[in-house]
Specification:
This protein has 239 residues and is of the alpha/beta class. Helices cover 33% and strands 15% of the residues. The protein has helices spanning 8-18, 40-44, 70-74, 90-100, 108-114, 133-139, 143-155, 178-184, 211-222; strands at residues 81-87, 125-128, 164-166, 189-191, 199-207, 227-235.
């Protein structure tokens, strides 16, 4: 017998009654399975950052009169432009943490929906920032790849995998200065596939200094890619 269709909120209420869960951001009951364990209000409260930002790396700027940050004026990255959905704080930071470190993989689809604001006109393919074999084994999944896969389906763009590889087990970037981060990943990536003439959108979860995505972009450009743009969920800061 076919069961009648039930709304997501009703199903969530039943599940939450049997297995009570609280939203990590506000402690209210989880009310939607799509965003669980986060509630609909907290998820909907995450807004796309539309304030002043560097036209290259995307870091937030204080004034709308400025076009580029000091770092990009002094030493611009090799990628064309980086964009992020929002700033790495509050609920967005908590969501990324639960997705990435607590292994809630089903958040990949709703997180990819947050990236639908990005205009992919002219983009030929999506590529995700890779993990090293050891990093993939330890985490069990590549959060950037799942995000890119979900976005490629929504945008109907090819997802190119196994072209960009991370060949070095680098120490965590957390706690390192911008200079140290760049040195840490300088020789960590290689491009082993054909990307000649392609305009690539490089996907990752969080961007801080941009050292990782810049190292990836360097390898892709050396392999013949025409241009690299970067898209991440969140833009963090060393401060």
């Amino acid at each position: 017998m076919r069961l009648p269709d039930l709304s997501s909120s009703l199903i969530s209420s039943i599940v939450n009654f049997l297995y009570p869960a609280a939203c990590p951001s506000c402690s209210n009951p989880t009310d939607n399975l799509t965003f669980a364990p986060f509630c609909s209000a907290c998820w909907g409260g995450m807004k796309h950052y539309a304030g002043p930002s560097c036209s290259i790396c995307g870091i937030p700027l204080v004034s709308t009169c400025a076009d580029r940050c000091r770092s990009c004026l002094k030493n611009p990255p090799v990628f064309s432009r980086a964009s992020s959905f929002g700033l790495y704080d509050a609920t967005l930071a908590s969501v990324v943490h639960h997705y990435k470190f607590l292994g809630i993989r089903r958040l990949a689809k709703p997180l990819a929906d947050l990236l639908m604001f990005y205009d992919t006109a002219g983009i030929d393919a999506l590529i995700s920032v890779p993990l090293s074999p050891r990093g993939l084994k330890d985490r069990g999944f590549n959060q950037a790849l799942l995000l890119a896969a979900a976005l490629s389906r929504e945008k109907r763009l090819p997802l190119v995998i196994d072209v960009l590889r991370k060949v070095a087990d680098t120490p965590p970037q957390v706690g390192l200065s911008a200079k140290e981060r760049a040195a840490n990943v300088k020789k960590a990536f290689v491009c082993t596939g054909k990307v000649s003439g392609m305009n690539i959108l490089l996907i990752d979860d969080v961007m801080t200094t941009g050292a990782t995505v810049n190292a990836c972009a360097q390898q892709l450009l050396r392999s013949g890619a025409r241009s690299i743009n970067v898209l991440t969920l969140a833009r963090a800061s060393l401060l």
